[in-house]
Design brief:
The chain is built from 5 helices and no strands. The protein is mainly α. It has a domain of 55 residues.
Length: 85
């Protein structure tokens, strides 16, 4: 499986932290925001491994992989929100 490297800008990081602190989004959006913050390998990010994220957030490795992939391939919004069928 390819590992997609997440590097958030300062603005993206602030937007994600604000979304989480408000808690007024769908549960899936908040989970994806937490995954991105933990996976961030930029200067301000912790750069956690997928396994560590899975344990901390009680989610599946495939969800983490899809969020990473969505961020790398389609950007910020592509990682947070699901595609409409």
């Amino acid at each position: 499986m390819i590992k997609y490297v997440v590097r958030l800008t300062l603005i993206e990081r602030e937007r994600l932290e604000e979304s989480i602190s408000k808690g007024r989004a769908a549960a899936s959006v908040l989970l994806h925001a937490r995954i991105l913050l933990k996976a961030d390998e930029g200067d301000d990010g912790p750069g956690w491994s997928d396994e560590k994220i899975r344990e901390a957030l009680d989610t599946s490795l495939s969800t983490i992989h899809r969020v990473r992939q969505g961020f790398v391939e389609t950007g910020y919004d592509g990682a947070l929100y699901r595609k409409k069928p």
